[in-house]
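Subject: sequence -> structure tokens, single chain

Hey, anyone have a minute? Need the predicted structure for the following. Not urgent.
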Amino acid sequence: MKKTVIVIILFLIVCYVFYDVIALWFEGFALRHKDSFWAPAALYKLGGLSMFILKYDIALSSYTKAVDAFPVYSLSDEAMYKIALIYEKQKRWKDAVAHYKKFVRKYPKHAWAPKADEKVEKIEGIYLQ
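Reply:
Had a minute. Here:
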């Protein structure tokens, strides 16, 4: 039991250390198979996992590639919003505002559109004066 736990912990550490390489390979793999039904979901899930473990550059890459390669995918709206959210987390205020505005222009009736408008107002009022 003790050895199994140690092996699992070591495996997780190795995966985290090499996560960037693995994630970028997987992005390329998904894009090479963009005709497959699983490809847009795979990029979206990779973006979510990357956000969860605070790998924002990878998440940004995955969500951007998902939106660009699969603009009519059912979660493209959420991916676009999360791109703006990542920019906000990185304190890239101009990029965040631009992407929140782009989200609202493209999805004005989305449930998150009012929140995006609030974020634009807040960022412009505090950080971009």
